[in-house]
Fold each of these.
Amino acid sequence: MTNLLDVERLSKRFGSVLANQEISLSVKPGEIVALLGENGAGKSTLVKAVIGLVKPDSGTIRVKGKELPYGDTAGAIARGIGMVHQHFQLVPVMSVTENLILGDEPTKFGLIQMQKARRETAELSKRYGLAIDPDAIIEDLPVGMAQRVEILKALRRDVSLLILDEPTAVLTPQETDELLEVLRNLASKGVGILFITHKLREVMAIADRVVVLRNGKLVGVTSPKESSESQLAQMMVGREVVLHVEKGPGNPTGAALEVRELEVLDDRRLEAVRGISLQVNAGEILGIAGVEGNGQRELVEAICGMRNRRKGKVLVAGKEVPNLKPHEVHAAGVAHIPEDRERHGLVATYSISDNLVLNRFDQEPYAKGWIRDLDAVARNGDELVRRYDIRTPNASAPASSLSGGNKQKTVVARELSQNLPVVVASQPTRGVDVGSEILSLSDRVAVLYGGKIVATFDSKLANRDEIGRLMAGSEGSRS
Amino acid sequence: MKFRLSYFVIISSILLFAYFYSQNSIVTSSVVFTAIPFALPLALAAMVGVMCERTGIVNIGIEGTMLVSAFTAFFLGAILKNITAGLFIGIMTGVLVGLLLSVMTITWKMDQIIAGVIINIMAAGITSFLYRQNFRIPSTFAPIDLPILGDIPVVGPIISDHGPITYLGIIFIFGLWVALYKTPWGLRSRSVGEHPSSADTAGVSVVRLRYLNVTIAGAVGGLAGSYLALEAVGIFERGFTAGKGFTALAIMIFGRWNPLGAFAAALFFGLSQAVTNQLMIDEVVQIPQQFVTMLPYILTILILAISAGKVRPPAAEGIPYEKEKV
């Protein structure tokens, strides 16, 4: 049986960074191959090269034995490769059906047969058990739904090889399980699946074979039967890894952060946070679990002064912090690791050193009066780059040259190096975790649904399934 | 039903027309008749904008495209003593300008506003420098008496007896609407203007489609310029297009980047100008000529102020597409 995909000795360099170094990999029909690696390991670059979105520098890509030219997206699609991208490749203002047919529209006399396309969409979603309204507009859909559209888009083109780039990053545990079931089902029908992830649980649950990348190099090919989670993690990171973060119980000593009866509107001016009160004690980690769009973003932004608090108060160490003044909230002792590091965490065109003092560039020792002390900024940059293992040739490179994971490290370095009493972190493990989930990190977990806290657990007593059910809005037994 | 300004404008225009028609049918017909030649170059120029911006390219060089096409259409039409050849040359000139804009904005990824300014300045410079007096074209395109349609009461005299470029242009506008909303080309074009990486990952070549559309749009700009020189006026002067290419951008926005919307907006402009002219001829109002010439610009400001914040342009317009940054 010929392989669906053969990649041989593929290399790609971005500037001074070798994103892929002589990587070889293959996928057989009906096989689920997990491409495992930390963020910045070169997984996305590799699959983008396969689908023609990135032109490799050298190496060959063969689909069903036939060589594929570099950068030939249409050719890759024509030969049955489908990809579900990490950043959804959907036109927000168009309908589900329009997005599905884009690039391969059913026509009659040169006109699109919209009715037929709509029918086919409904049939397709029924056949694969992925329920969706063919006429829904993408920008109105929740993330999990939009992902279904992405998968349907690939399935519609009779894919023989489906590539998924971090598909579970935005899903609830239940949605993730559903997705894994869909993938198993597809594989049993002979579809080859190349699944990019850094989540070991998913790899163990679903993969036939595991290909591990690290720093752009292939470090090994194995299978869940042959290796344990901790062995895989070690391959990924290159050293011994603590899977369940070893963290003693918290040692709470009085309230560090208090939120009282907070109400916040979202961008559409709808109520997103509906009267949330919570308290985080010094020495304690409170995890907030929730599906995207249930108020967590608005909650975080309101705490950090980036969004208007319509009602309620935020107190740090017993003192109220001002509304809509992020700089003063930070000065009051709140470090913020934002969800969208590109937009709210970094200035892409500034150097890494400058980004590392973005919240204190005007304070001693980084400025003396009106004048910035660039030597102090550079020294701080070099030190933090070393201490937080930010992978870059030097700290004066622009932040845009960093990979996703290293951008995140830069933000974390800036926010944590000051030792502020409160740290608000939004999706901090997106892209950098090794099997660390909210349960193993937190002392307590609050579940957010519909803008309200529906339950709070002691993390030692909580279980994953119940939290998942609560996140999805079903009534669970509350403790 | 949601209140929409465009419906309001259309319905009140029809009511006003009915009222004036009952008062004086001949003058009313002739005013509406003259609104069409005022509206057509604006409408065609707005189509240039629609085609470019829907695929994500901002084109503020419409004015220059029209000017240089009117120039070549007129002078080569005069030299060859053949206005059909002039029309062909005017359209081809538009194609070349479209290609120039494509190279600057798509291949070289220049700032699209600056690329448009370059075209406008070049067009003004070249046409002024090469301008010569005492050239005449043999004739303008003759009006066509529409069979059947021309015999419809009330409407017939208004829509009949326009020149061939007028009818060609109107057919094009309706065709563009169908193409944009009902064909694969249109779906792909709109997706390229909204979210180009989606189109790219679906195997649609963003670069090729942008080139194609900007170049065809150039041809339409050439048609608009040729219309002015060979059908509407029959002469060429320096600065002949008088800002129509810029007014067209306002019309495009007012029409929400929709060909029929923009056509309706252009008709509204044309009508307001025709009405003002008539009022002056009848000496109903005593306005200095200068204020009348200001009318399109004042309307432009008003319309843009009304539309501000209510319309949503194609999301990817003005942004060069970088393939590797998916």
Amino acid sequence: MKRKLSIILIVCFVILGLAACGKNGNAGETAPAKTAGNSDGTDAANKSTGNDGNAQKAVTLSIAMHVANVKDQEPYMYGIIQKFQEKYPNIKIDLQGADTQEHVKKMKMMAQSYTLPDIFWMLPAPAKEMNKAGLLLDLNEFLQDNPEIAASIDSKMVNAYQDGGKQFGLPYQALVTGLWYNKALFDQYGLKVPETYDELLAAAKVFKKNNVVTIAKGAKDTFSTWAFLGMLTRYGFFDKIDKIQAGTEKFENPDFLKLFNKIDELRINGAFPDNVTTLSYFQAVEMFTAGKAAMLDAGVWETKKIESSPIAKTVGFSWGPTFADGAGNQKIAMAVAAAPLVASEKVKEDAAKYDAVTKFFGFFYSQDGAAVMAENEAPPVVKYTGNVDKEKYPVYADVISKLNEPGWDRPAAQPDLVLSEAVANQLNDSIYGVINGIYKPAEALKLIDSKVSK
Amino acid sequence: MIWLSKRRYILGMLLPTLLVYLVYIILPVIVSFYYSFTTYTGIGAAEFVGLKNYVTLWQDSLFWISLKNTFIILVVSIMFLLPGAFLLALLLNLKIKSGNAIKALNFAPSIIAPILVGLIWVFILDPQMGLINVFAKSLGLNQLALQWIGGKTLTPYSIGVVFTWQMIGFLATVFLAGLKMIPRDVYESSSIDGAGKLQQLLSITIPMLNETVKINVVLIITGVFKIFETVLLLTNGGPNHLSEVLVTYMYNVTFTSGEYGYGMSIATVTFLLTMVFSLVYMGLSKKNIEE
């Protein structure tokens, strides 16, 4: 009896073990999408009719995003997916989300096992590597078939995701970064909202005397250096970067050193929070929206949050200070392609899936998609022809007006996005090193050079 | 039960667990070891570079900082955690009212998720809003309002204290189990022979807890080399990696910088250090017993 019992137990364990090791049948493909507006649990969609009137096969598209809760954190993507599913009821979306770092890690692992989602968000550098490894769909055909879309996206943003003759991705969103400011605080202390570095430094000195933080920042999240990356472009970053990567120029050059010295000068004059080293980016945002800081280094993704904060009526957006000793054009607006939305090469193996993917891209970059973005106060990637209610959305309206301001050039990309992950990480780390008072400016730049040479 | 003692049945019983252990523990260690000799970025093929990553590691000041911090936490933990847990176990061993409730309370920090432990201690240690500094300042003791975290020196010591708080209940429970194993009649005999409490402690309790001490030291060593979430929450390794420990630095290099190959060389060294420390300690303590 005991022997039989033992054998039964062993068999059970082995079966359980094998079941656990086996393929899970890709739950994402079979489960009705949580986000699906039409997920009624029936097979009605199997033979549903699209708006084009043709009977179409039911398709499930897996989409993976870089935020844990897409509905709350990327509401425009969630909204676009809802509208897309309404338009194409035969296409179900299996939407997955994970925090950026977790997401990137997951995508890399999935790339190794050739199980990438159909469409996913990816950082530019690893997306480029995935393209080199032949894992991503070439979207040239899509752009050729949809010339109106190709024409409606800023060409610099499209070009940012070309490599080896392939269009491996399209901009997911416009990365618009700079310095948010609380005009009420500037008015309170009789200061002008700074347009130049000298004005910023003068404001920092006054704010410090009055226990107001000039620029809210959180060093625990070293990725939050956007405004300073924008400043780097005003010291000729894009004139130098090719030479730096070729080994004929260095990060530790007189121009970049000037900028890093200025960051150090801002630190010495108390422009950053005293506890910047233990603050996170999210705490810095809270500090600004609570009216405790005059400026915030961030991007337009914070529009909605700021719009709903008590300081909404007095907030404005700026591209950051210009520099008298800068290199090249100073009127540079950091409105570039953020990170690409890419598709797996494998979708080409299934005609229905490929069709669904192109339909999704078509919808995402349509005026309908742009309208959803505008509704959610995100800057549309395509040229949007709709209007913004200035009374209802004063913060968003200010951002849009800055985007349309004439005389400002847009760079090809944000500096860290043209570097390898390791170098970009070191660049952020070096900027924060100076802000934290850990690195001397020249030392901080040397560390980036050592990463480049590796 | 005789059939269970046959070798083939024993093997049959062990096989499923062994397979899981091989696939999920041994194989990843071997794979990590292999990748530590490559410049793998997580995508595409891994390029074999021999010992290059280990040479880089040797010259990497941040690796040495994270190693130093790990050792500081180890020393702080052994200095405070081991005697602290032992004294706590002695107290818990006394027959006192609500003894079980006190035991449960002491064990509580061990069952809190490490990520929450980090969060709790941020509110205690933060130089600006933390309980310690706010309290010190309210008493006018501004000189005690130090940069417990986020500064250049104190963070690893603070992490050692947090680790001590987190582990003390668990290790005290292990000590308590050891104390309960010591036969009562040994104490009774020694009492008859005129031994006092201190003599009993030094001549009976501590020597007879030798194995328990050994287990606890190994638990501390392996625990310290695995610290991750607490650092992540308290400082995220900052400012500028000055408070990194080996695991957080490995994580940063591997997943933030995308240097998988180099990250695996840090993981391999961490693994080897943990093994060496544990084995050397176990070897030394065995030698002491034999002597």
Amino acid sequence: MTMPDMALLDSFRDPLLARRLLAAIQNRAAHLAEHTKRPVHLMEVCGTHTVAIARSGFCSVLPESVRLISGPGCPVCVTSNSDIDRIIALTRIPGVTLASFGDMIRVPGSSSSLQTRKAEGADIEVLYSPLDALRLAQERPERQIVFVGVGFETTAPLIAATVERAVAQGVENFSVLVAHKRVPPALAALVNDTEVALDALILPGHVSTVIGSEPYRFLARDHNIPGVITGFEPLDVLQGIAQLLELLAAGRADIEIAYRRAVHVEGNPTALAALERVFEPSDATWRGLGRIAQSGYVLREEFAAFDALRRFSPEVEPTVEPQGCRCGEVLRGVMAPGDCPLFARVCTPAHPVGPCMVSSEGSCAAHYRYRRG
Amino acid sequence: MGDTVLLAHGSGGSMMRELIEGLFFDAYGSAELLRGDDAAILETLAAGGADAGRLALSTDTFVVSPYFFPGGDIGRLAVCGTVNDVATSGAVPLWLSVGFILEEGLPLADLRGICASMAAAAREAGVRIVTGDTKVVERGHGDGIYINTTGVGLFAPALGYADSGHRGTRRALSGADCQPGDRVLLSGTLGDHGIAIVSARENLGFTSTIESDVAPLNHLVADVLDLAPHTRCFRDPTRGGLASTLNELAMQSQVAIIVEEEAVPVHDAVRGACEMLGYDIFQVANEGKMVAVVPAQEAEAALCAMRASRYGKDAALIGEVAAIEGGAVDGVSAASAVGSVGAAGAAGGDGGGAVGAVGATGGDGGGGGRRTDRAYAGAEPLVTVRTAFGSQRVLDMLVGEQLPRIC
């Protein structure tokens, strides 16, 4: 791994510039409020933005008339209960070693979690990259290594590359449970949902690095909703908010990039090509948003042998949704975490009821951890 | 608490606290245990003044993978961890016991190296290893080597222990004594140990730049007490990091603590690693750092003492103690303290770390059956961080293990 250049990162955390941007935001918000006579609602789509905003404490200094709503951009959170149950079911197949990113370990399914299965003796490895899972498969030929593919367009190309490498190297004891999601179809579902009141979108930086800015164009064109793609440092976030307020004030719906050091209009052609070769879009079920057309991925037929569900056909328990959990409404932005009756009372990071309290990127966890009080 | 022990129960955060309060406290419940400090303070028959007849006792079990790591090894960790826990009580650590659980197949050369390292650390700290025990388990039933150490310290050591930091009779310190207006000092950079371990274990390739800070801090504590005799308390931010330590102190003392983010010293390489792994630096383990809470008028002196000490060159004033707005936190009482149970860290966890001493909550009783770390509704959070942007955020305890994120 390469260490990040902290001097470079620090330049995006400059307190003086941050205070100036905050002042600009306050001016624009005041100006806007004079016309609209109501607060503007900006949704940060991405869970990493939710955490960045919470960590920076910006909610304590942003003007009252700018309301930030967390969206469905936490990969663990939007994974449906039935998918979690499928993942847990795989740990019960003899000979299977489940390899997962760390965030998934504590998410409760209908009756268990990977953490509990691990304590019960299931073979579960926490990894940093799907390529590590492939290496594990080569090191342990007697085991069947199943990688849990959860995430958005950001991580999907890594899985695609790993599957292609498994083919090239003839690794047969490796497979993937594909539960990846695509962001633009979910945004389409959100803006068509009349319950969700949105004025503008803070668009995800990482996902856009892969897909570029054009897949969001329909938001501006068809729904009159502006969006700004931005990064995750404090200045990136503030710059994104400032640009959105400017678009709103001018009454101009457009998709802008405030994260040019990473995002290009056309995205990352290499990653997109890998996605295209290995996956095809398919309908998928999101927690909170339900079934959305073309919002997930499945392996293309020529890679179907690497589909863990096909390979093992695990017996999955009937899905039981956690009682009283409002994660679905939180993910759609129609309920703030603190308004859920379970929040901080029954549902805490130590005893999460729903995934939004489990994942470090979940809006309930971020809210509990940084913003309360 | 669930039906089974999870790795997260050993990670120094709120889940471990539940285990301690819900199981160990129920089972043992001694007054000494329930005080809630890193070392238990024991009355002896030989009373000779307020604290002169007391002794301090602390135990800790060390499980770290790999057992040799950049900047130290499990042996140095086992000596320093317990020495530091005893030192936080104000007592002068003098004697250690050592219990080994060895796995069949452990190279003797490794054991010899670890013992030499323990001897060197004990010499440095001025403590003597005076008794021990050895067990061997079958191959596959241990991680090479586990070590338990128990430390005893005195508040008025006899002459002849001058090299252990003896300067006359000491006061027994408690984390329940912080007062509004006090200053919070940190003896150096945050996160070095935790990041050194994770990078060595996961082969992340930045091991050359980050070394564990594992060190005995009893002399630093003695130096601070000399110059700042009214120091309220010390606590070493091991597992669970500074976040857990400050929350424990705030709960024990029923105060708020405000940390200035910019004032907290962190090596660039450690910050970079945290960025990459998605770790919160405030929750990463340290093994050679001490937090001291000091009355404002002695803060400067305490800082000077730390900086003059071998392990405190980067010491900084990082925050201050304030009154809780609106009175005591719901469900929490300063009297219902908790104690120093030596819950072992998770196998392959964050590097062993110290005794699972924790702060107090009303738990099932006072809190009306809720099991939150601390009351949420209607109460101010106890520990907050002031950022460079003038904004504020809550600094919460670690829950479960620190896990790398997805993207």
